[in-house]
Design brief:
- It is found in: Cell membrane.
- One of its GO terms (molecular function) is protein histidine kinase activity.
- It holds the Pfam family HAMP.
- The chain is an alpha+beta fold.
- Helices cover about 50% and strands about 20% of the residues.
- It has 17 helices and 17 strands.
- The strands form four sheets. The protein has a five-stranded mixed β-sheet.
- Helix 12 packs antiparallel against helix 13 (about 430-450) and helix 14 (about 460-475) packs parallel to helix 15 (about 500-510).
Amino acid sequence: MYREEEIDIKKLVRMVNNMKLKYKLIFFYIIVVMIPVLIAGVILTNYFREGALNRAIDQATNNVEKIKSQLYSKLRVPTDISNLLYFDEDLERLVNTHYPSILELTKAYLNYTDLKEYVLRYREISNIRFFIDNPTLVDDMSIAPVTPEIRTRNWYTQAMRNNQIYWMYIHDKDPYINSPKGTINKLSLIRQVPYPEYSKSGILMVQVNQDELNQMLHQEPFETIIIDEQGYIVSAKNPQLVGSTVDAFDIGINVQSQSKGVFMTQVKDKDSYVMIDEMIPELSVSKLKIISVFETKSILSDANKVSQLGLFIVIGVLLVALVLVYTISLLTSNRLLRLSRQLNQVALGNLNVVSHIDGTDEIGQLSRQFNYMVASINQLITQVIESNEKNSTLEIAQREIKLKMMASQIHPHFLFNALESIRMNAHLRGEREIANIVRLLGKLMRKNLEVGRERAPIKEEIEMIRSYLEIQKFRYEDRLEYEIAFDPAAAEVMIPPLIIQPLVENSVVHGLENKEGTVHVSIAVTLTENQEIQVIVMDDGIGMTEDRLAAIMEVITKAEEEEQGRIGLRNVQQRLTLYYGAEHGLNISSREGEGTRITFSIPKDSGLKA
């Protein structure tokens, strides 16, 4: 049975593959699109009411999200202003100064205009107030002293508890100064501004422009309000609701206990959906809730009409789409046929074919890729021919180089044996000093030929340095004095070979250069308390100027190798930084006429024991 079904599927696939492209598109459009859409349209008509409600809920959700975003943006301005005033030193001096006379106070008020400028500059705020315990201040509708009545207010006591930002609606029946204008009927930012230097704190109040808040909700399709944590309506589509509590809105659920969600309830005795969301302004501990309400009946009445209209529209669209699919399939198949003919020409060996199918769709891109492919094939054929010619020439040159290298090879043991013969002859003739120098030279050359090793013990490096210095001592006699201070604890630590010798050679060569008298060279290798091997090479030669030293440091630290550069120092610098990092590179100090000092350090644990 399973075998028969598999055969039937293969026959169906073969039949579909044998169909022309335009018929495939029309066939699959009818089977996959038209018939399912018609069936789904009939079925979904019965459920369109739920769809309409869901769309209304989605719209309400999107509107609430949009309001949240706008509210974040509008409340960010008062928050940013409060942050600026929090650190405003001019404001700090103004409110904490005790003024001897009203004249001095008036001058101070006139000189400080930041609060009024903020109000004029930003439309999001309507006023800025600052309260502080300073009896020499006078209320100018911006800065005011704290009175006993103000101390009893909820917003004042709450703000004095900590340095957090609070957002609350201060009702218009909550006067805080003895003035006809001393009332607030707006959402306000409240925060404490501490002044530790004066052992007191002030209260900053930034009042939000009510028109800006109401304007956000003016064009909302559903009834929408914003409330604070106390239940006061701070903004509403109907501005008359501002200032009242959420209970006056007559919602059938306790919105204060709900944080977020969609609820079906009765609002003013009508079946409605209530969308509740909340937001916490930036840097604030207070929450604001956004509530959107829409009536069920108005949504469903339109749903029935829209469902019928939608069915007719779907049928019309499907018929139009059928015509468009046929047209597009015909155009597509013709373009593909042209491209197929051009591919056949390439298959027959004609590499001069150029495709001219217009359009920027996939077929147009395929045509351009076809042209690129043909051009690439021609280019590759040319490159293969050139490469074969170059390989032949290179192979001949390599053979010639190999013959020359073989002819020029000299086994190093021949040189060592020759030096040993010279040393024995000098020893037999009593020239022990010359014999010793030849022995040291052979030893030094043997070590130099062994630098292919990745690491070598420090003691071998010191031994090679001692041999080098003895040879130079033989050459320069009394003009060169040296001393080596070597910590036995560092003897077996492995380091890169020839890492110290070039520094010693640099001190000897450049130290004796252009200086009369004796030059002292000292080498110190110690193990520090930080478990690092510290190497110091010093000489009392002619030294160098600061400009010369800077130029040398620039040369040895460059990534690219330069001709006639400091090859030895640069080689040591590059190997130190590669092995141990830039912090373990060379440190060179020198003074003209006094000498030069080169130091570096490497971690003991990075080197293996010998």
